[in-house]
Amino acid sequence: MPVVIVAVALLGLAIGSFLNVVIYRLPAGKSLSRPSSHCPVCGNPIRNRHNLPVIGWLILRGRCADCRSRISIRYPLVELTTGVLFVLVALRLNQLSLLSVLPAWLCFAAIAIALTMIDVDVHRLPDAIVLPSYPVLALLLTLGAVTHDTPWALLRMLIGGLALWLSYLLLHLAYPAGMGWGDVKLAGIVGAMLGYLSYSSLLVGAFAAFFLGSLVSVPLLVSSRASRKSRIPFGPFMLAGAFLALWLARPIADAYLHLINVT
């Protein structure tokens, strides 16, 4: 397992570096491959030795090697966050004896980071990321189910994806200003990922999204830093709720069952 963790951490750092490109270029409609990484101020390409995740930023001390303009600390933070999240996911799936779906959850983690940052920046969940995620994650989960011999997990995946998608669709139809169409499309992915794990994961993840959202939005409304008409991106809370459920769904379900038995 230590070898797997190191490999997953390095993979996360590398993917985090690519996610920085996706987060910056995709909303702007720019190519993800051309031109190569360059300074947005002077336009000079970034040298290979400076393009190493996290380390490159530290070597440069957060400044361009040519024009000395500042490089946002956000870049190494995205890389580091991706690496840490990859490791945490691997550790949790190992505890659950579900390493067969590690590729699916690592892919979902990368998608979650990209969508979270883009939604915060431009209040959009791009179809270019969301829609291809459906077949990719479905394929990876199916391979995991076949490997682990858990066909019923695929049925839960379908039920979970459809249930959460329909729930968000109804919320969108009832209050379009409060629930965007992008959130509806993302709900199917979140529901499928959590449904594959268990129905308790699905329920905890669905509830956690609104709970986390209220923890942020209510204080903003009370302090008048936001109004009822303010657009607060909900996608990040949906994704955060999914990963919270990955770690806490089973303990919460066990605590609830214990409470029922006691009462």
TrEMBL record:
Keyword Lipoprotein set for record: no
Alphabetical list of Pfam families matching this protein: A24_N_bact (PF06750), Peptidase_A24 (PF01478)
Organism: Jatrophihabitans telluris
Gene3D superfamilies: 1.20.120.1220
Official protein name in the record: Prepilin leader peptidase/N-methyltransferase
Keywords: Cell inner membrane, Cell membrane, Hydrolase, Membrane, Methyltransferase, Multifunctional enzyme, Protease, Transferase, Transmembrane, Transmembrane helix
Lineage top rank: taxon: Bacteria
TM spans (from-to): 6-26, 97-116, 128-146, 152-171, 203-222, 234-253
Ranges for domain Prepilin type IV endopeptidase peptidase: 107-216
